Amino acid sequence: AIGNRIFGCDDCQLICPWNKFAQLTAELDFTPRHQLDRITLLELFCWSEADYLKNTEGSPIRRTGYIGWLRNLAIGLGNAPAHPDIITALEQRQNIQPDWLAEHVTWALQRQRLCSAQLPPFA
Predict the structure, then answer these.
(1) Which residue of 5, 39, 81, 123 has the fewest CB atoms within a 10 Å radius of its CB?
(2) Share of the chain above pLDDT 70, in %
(3) Between vectors from CA 9 to CA 6 and to CA 14, what angle results, nearest 5°?
(4) Of 92, 82, 85, whose CA–CA distance to 70 is shortest?
(5) Per-residue confidence at 78, pLDDT binned at 50, 70, 90?
(6) Integer Cα distance of 28 and 94 in angstroms
(7) 58 — alpha (psi -120 to 50), left (phi > 0) or beta?
(8) Average pLDDT over the chain, rounded to an integer
């Protein structure tokens, strides 16, 4: 149900009836950091824990922790359009720990492979 999103917060913000009264702010603390709004799920999934910690410092994104971040990204990648680079990245993390995270990565990999098999061959 999460589709290719990492978190559901954006959807909540979009449908919240109180947000119709909200005004855009020039407050810098509310602008995207480290161009996180312009980076692909695949790039984010390939971050090391050090990259994650550096690029999410001071952000509520940290609440999920690195393992939760990877889980959500794996789900998003599993729901993304099939691509060989996604399959490769998922394969590289297929045996990641803890086991429950590996299950999400394996699920995403299976989805990617299934969707990839249904694509017409390249001309």
Answers:
(1) 123
(2) 89
(3) 125
(4) 92
(5) very high
(6) 38
(7) left
(8) 87
Spatial separation of the C-alpha atoms in residues 47 and 66, rounded to whole Å: 10
Task: Report which DSSP code applies to 59.
Answer: S
Task: Give the Cα separation of 62 and 91 in Å (integer).
Answer: 25
- Tens of pLDDT, residue by residue over 12-43, are 777 778 777 888 788 887 777 777 778 999 99
86-101 pLDDT, tens digit each: 999 999 999 999 999 9
Q: Is the dihedral of CA 70, 75, 79, 85 positive or negative?
A: positive
How far CA 38 is from CA of 32, 41, 42, in Å, comes to: 9, 10, 12
Per the listing, tokens 């790039």 go with 43
Mean pLDDT of 37-65: 91
Q: Could you tell me if 105 and 31 are in contact, meaning their C-beta atoms sit under 8 angstroms apart? A: no
Contacts of 91 (CB under 8 A, 6+ apart): 109
Name which of 103, 38, 97, 108 is nearest 73 in CA terms: 108
